[in-house]
Specification:
77% helix, single chain, mainly alpha, 13 helices, 314 residues
């Protein structure tokens, strides 16, 4: 079991390195323009955010709409650390992630006693409170936004932070703690009856998700070099929920695939002008209908792999 896990990890890291080398060469040779490099970096950042939300929403079943709030905490904290203290980029990212995790812990203790719509509304309120607080602090730019952030983020930083996040989430989900989180999602009362401390595992998922969202926020702010509060409002959180739901609740490969598609889609539709505001929602509706009928890309890939395994054994 341990050997197979190490083997899978080795294959994943090797495949990731190959993908990184290929894309790096394409960028270096100018085959991929700065525009497409930007899309790749945003895809990497969004995958970290979607996976961190998937840990909360998909694996513990806690419907939260405040994920962009943790992203904003990480974005502003790391940006201010590099601007004011001129600390190394990794330390700034780590500081942003830790502060987001601490806030996640403090918010999680009272709010995670709620369930369903009540939790969603509470976390939505938290997100808006964060936005309003940032708007009223002139030392961090206020409503006008924060400028002068050093451009530390490049494709390598975004890519390897994404890979590290995938490994962390995968290992958590496939550990005993991950199985406890899934049991909370499936039936919280039954999990409590079996002696599982459901509050502990819900808060654990919330804190880890907030930490990764804070890291992603730091990567985002050091790439955009300008951030403003309205970039992190509840609509941003809704985007992450859509990525998770379309990819399949609790499905890591599906979440990654849907994030790639939905991050690129608005850019790919720019050629249609204002019509893209109509085409994009229609495509989302179609994808949702197909997903409900079991025809999501991740499910189709799983069926093909099962069919391939069956043919191989036959």
């Amino acid at each position: 079991m341990v050997k197979s896990s190490f083997k899978r990890l080795g294959i994943f890291i090797l495949a990731s390195l190959i993908i990184f080398v290929v894309f790096s060469l394409l960028i270096y040779k100018g085959i991929l323009s700065a525009y497409y490099e930007r899309i790749l970096i945003l895809i990497c950042i969004n995958i970290v955010l979607a996976l961190s939300l998937n840990l909360i929403l998909g694996f513990t079943g806690q419907f939260t709409l405040g994920h962009s709030g943790f992203m904003s905490i990480g974005a502003y904290t790391s940006a201010m650390i590099t601007i004011k203290l001129n600390l190394p980029f990794p330390l700034a990212l780590l500081s942003g992630g830790i502060l987001a995790a601490i806030i996640g812990f403090l918010i999680g203790i009272p709010t995670l006693k709620l369930k369903g719509d009540y939790l969603a509304i509470t976390t939505l309120g938290f997100c808006q409170i964060i936005v309003v607080i940032i708007q009223n602090i002139p030392q961090i730019g206020g409503a006008q936004g924060l400028t002068g952030i050093p451009g530390k983020t490049n494709f390598a930083w975004a890519f390897f932070i994404m890979i590290a996040s995938i490994i962390v989430i995968y290992n958590i989900v496939h550990s005993s703690q991950g199985r406890a989180m899934i049991s909370v999602r499936e039936d919280e009362i039954a999990a409590e009856a079996m002696g599982i401390n459901t509050t502990k595992y819900k808060i654990m998922a919330f804190v880890v998700g907030a930490f990764l969202a804070g890291i992603a926020g730091g990567v985002y702010s050091h790439y955009m070099m300008y951030i403003e509060p309205q970039s992190f409002n509840f609509l941003k959180s809704t985007d992450f929920v859509v990525y998770v739901v379309l990819g399949g609740i609790g499905n890591i490969p599906g979440c990654i695939l849907s994030t790639i598609v939905l991050t690129y889609l608005p850019e790919g539709l720019r050629g249609f002008g204002d019509l893209r505001m109509v085409i994009y929602p229609i495509l989302l509706i179609v994808i949702m209908i197909l997903n409900a009928k079991g025809m999501s890309p991740s499910k189709l890939l799983r069926r093909k792999s099962k069919r391939g395994n069956y043919n191989a054994t036959a």
